[in-house]
Amino acid sequence: MPLWLVMGGISSGKSAWAEKFIIGNLKHHQVEYIATLDESLTSADDWVLRQKLAEHRMRRPSGWTLWKDADNPFGRILKLPPTAVVLWDGVGPYIARYLAGLGKNDESHELQNSHSREEEQMDLYREMKNHWDEMLSRISQRTADTLIVSEEIGLGLIPTNRDTNEFIRSLGNFNQIAAHYAAAVIFVVAGLPLWIKGVPQ
Questions:
Q1: Residue ranges of domains in the chain
Q2: Measured over all CA atoms, what is the biggest interatomic distance in the chain, rounded to whole angstroms?
Q3: DSSP letters along 63-86, please?
Q4: For the segment 135-151, what is each residue's pLDDT rounded down to a tens digit?
Q5: Which CATH class is domain 3-183?
Q6: Is the dihedral of CA 107, 110, 115, 120 positive or negative?
Q7: Beta-bridge partner residues of 186
Q8: pLDDT tens digits for range 162-201
Q9: DSSP string of 109-144, one letter each residue
Q10: Can you tell me the mean pLDDT for 45-67?
């Protein structure tokens, strides 16, 4: 069974579309749902995000198994039986946590000069892309369907903030690698699917 990549902007309806697709088109009712964003990652006064999470919970079928794994969704997916149908919703929060971890490692020691800092950043970036390439390759070889819902945030203005730019660049590279291994790539706009790769089901 293939790897499916569902992409869309913030509040584009991509998650709801993926959930309907996995039930209505792929005919799966027992699903392992990997959530990378949960209440533990939100502030107490972020009621907008909490409301969004509540809507996700209400929409999600009761028979699905929920896994909250913000740090290592790859590990969680690969620990599940290869016959288990998986929906991973939200690549962006995982990317943010991953980059934060790299930042902590970077701050743990001082670099001699800006040139060595650039070289180390390039090494970390290559290591990150190689890791994603290996994990997504393995996931694409699972027996059961795997749906990954990811954010497309590269259609706006070019940010001048370094951290934001790094996040967008990293998420964009993740999406490109995932699209390479995916049998189908669907871009959701206003709740409507546009098939970028693969044949509509």
A1: 3-183
A2: 57
A3: TSEEEE-SS-HHHHHHHS-TTS-E
A4: 999 999 999 999 999 99
A5: alpha beta
A6: negative
A7: 6, 195
A8: 888 889 999 999 999 999 999 999 999 999 999 999 988 7
A9: S--SSHHHHHHHHHHHHHHHHHHHHHHHHHHHT-SS
A10: 77
